[in-house]
Every structure is written in C-alpha cells, then in structure tokens.
What we know:
The chain is α/β, with parallel strands linked by helices. The protein has eleven helices and 16 strands. The radius of gyration is 24 Å and the shape is globular.
Amino acid sequence: xxxKQRTIPLRVHILRAMKRRVRPNHEKYEDLLMELGIxxxxxxxxxxLDYYLKLLPETDTTHFIFHxxxxxxxxxxFQIDTLIIFSNFCLLLEVKYVRGTIYFDPKNNxxxxxxxxxxxxxxxxxxxxxxNQCYKLTSWLKHKNLPIxxxxxxxxxxxxxxxxxxxxxxxxVEKHVIKSPALSEKVIPLHKKNPTQxxxxxxxxxxxxxxxxxxxxxxxxxxxxxxxxxxxxxxGVLCPNCPHHVVMKRIHxxxxxxxxxxLSHDAHIEALRDYALLISSEITMEELRRFLRIDNNYxxxxxxxxxxxxxxxxxKSRTYNLxxxxxxx
Length: 329
C-alpha cells in the first residue's frame, strides 16, 4: 500500500519554468539546464520502478511504501527515494537512472560513469548514500521511541541498458546493487533473513502517521542560486508547440503562434503559472498587462474570471492571487 505518493518537487517545476522563460544567453542558463536534466532523469527512473514495486511478494501483513521522504536529522534533513516498511524490517531504495557504463568502487566510495566519448565522471557512491540513510532512519525511529528494526538497503538501477562493472569489493556490490526487475527476487531472502515481527498493526499505523507528519519538503529556490532577476525573464504567452521561446499573439479571442500557427484558448494559463513560480504568487493589473502583453483590461479580467482567479483591494491597488494555478503543477 502506497502511503506517500511520488510527486514532482517544486524545485523541478521552477527549473522547468526557468528553462522556458530565462533568456538563453544568461550566464547560468546551461547550468540550470544541466540540473534540470539530472533531476528529470531521477524522476523518470523512480517512475520506471513503480511497476516492479507492484510485484513485491505478498506477506501476512501489509507493507507500506513511501516515496520521496525528507525527514529531520539533528539540525538538518535526509532524503529517501523509496522506503518500504514491513512488519519485520525496513527497506530503503536508492533509485538511480544512469546511462552508459558505470563502475562501482566501494573501496574508494565512488561511482564512475562513462558515456560514449565524454570524459569519465565521478559520482556519489549510492551504496554509501543509502547506508547513511539507513543510519539516520534508525536514529529517527529511536528518537520517536519506536522499535529499532533491521534496516536493509538496495541501490536500484532502473535503466535496463546501463552496463555495470565492478572495480572493488564485488561482494558488497552484489549484495546491495540490483536492476529493477530483480527487486522481488531480492526481497524474498530478506524476509527469511529477518523472521522476527517487530511491528504490529497499531505500531505500523503510528509509524506511517509520524513519517507523514515529519516529512519536510525542500523549499530551496533555484532563482536565487542562479542569480536570475526579473529582467532576465521573458514575458508573453509562449507557444507550447515551439521549442524556442516563440511568443503567441491574441487574435479574435484565441492565442495564435506566428511560427507554427498553433491556436490555443488557454495558453495564458501556463504563462501565469510561470509568473507565480518565478516572480510572485500575486500580480497587479499593470503586471498582467506587461507579462501577458495585453493592453486591454477587459480582456484580462475576463481571462481571470474564467480561471476563477480572484482579486483583493481597490481598483488601483487591486492584486490577484495566482496560488490556485500552482496546485495544478
């Protein structure tokens, strides 16, 4: 049973909006594209695991699955890609979607990636990552006065085409690294290894409540990190069909792309969502005219009414709340 669904982090939504809106010649544009590519590969990899999670072996008690948990640890937080709570043990999954050939080197705490003719890239050791997460989860359980259960860990590779090679400690790699189709096969011996039932139904439900309560989403903003200011952000309603920042025009109640001639009734919704993600969740009529590139206040009010966007304040200082658009990202 899934207790916490996987969601796309707010930071990814912001990065996607930055990809659409930040001027391509910005000094940090390539850096933000690189971060977005890494995060989207991670999301794709985690989604690719979902099918195999459904094939986990049935047991006498229900197991609970939590995706993208971020829990407190001392004065910071730690993140778990996927946590599965059984009555007899916890299983942490560090999910990786990587391309090319990867070389595991646990002795030196590193993972080396080789992709075609590109230079070798040293990555964080995922075995060490998930081991640290196990330690911190055990500390969290202890802090909550919950039974300390065995904490098992696996690194799951979700790209079926990745080639795996081992540079050191092959027994460690064999024990902790699998490709996603092997998940069920790997879990069966873990049940045999941990026969003692630590959690009854009441305790399992309590753990689930506490995990959800303590989950703290990451709120860091890439806007500040990449030093993007308002003047760096492209205005206008962008064509969803064209890849290169083509601004649509409002003609006879529709948005028309001058490049591919696409017609849209609601392309302005994405534009205002971008504004909420990148600039502010509140907007004035003056800013609406500037950002949508529409001079007619009546047209703007009609668009806002159709989106059920409400305003507060008098006519001159009236502001409109775009927060409802963010719940649909």
